[in-house]
Sequence to fold (125 residues):
Amino acid sequence: MKLHHWIVLLIALVVVGGLVLWPKFQSKDVYTDELTGTWRAEGTSENDYQWWMEYTFEDHDYTLATDSYYKEKGTYLITERFLDGSMTVKKTFSDGSKEYEIVVVTTDDPDVIQLDGAILNRVKK
Fold:
C-alpha cells in the first residue's frame, strides 16, 4: 500500500472510532440527584400528636418510614425539572404495582425541601 492509502485508512479509523465513542462521552447525566440522602420532617398536630416521616433516597431507590409504622420501599425517577428548582418525581412501590407522582420544591438552602406539604431537612451523618 502506498503512503496516501495508509493516511486515508488512518483518518477513516479515527472518524469511525469518534462516531462510535462520541455517545459514550456525551451520555453523562448533566443533573445531579439533589434528593440523595436522608430527609426528615417532624411536628406536632393540633391535638398534640407528635408525628415524623423520613425519606431515604439513594441510587434511584427510596424508603419512607413514618411514626405510624407505615413503610414504603420502591424506586424513584425525576421526570421533570422546573426553572424554580422544583421537580416532579415518580415513585413506584408495592412491587411495581403502584405509582405516585410527587412535586419536590427546593429552597435556597440545599438541606431543605418541601414534599407533600411537609418541610423536610437533610439528616447529617
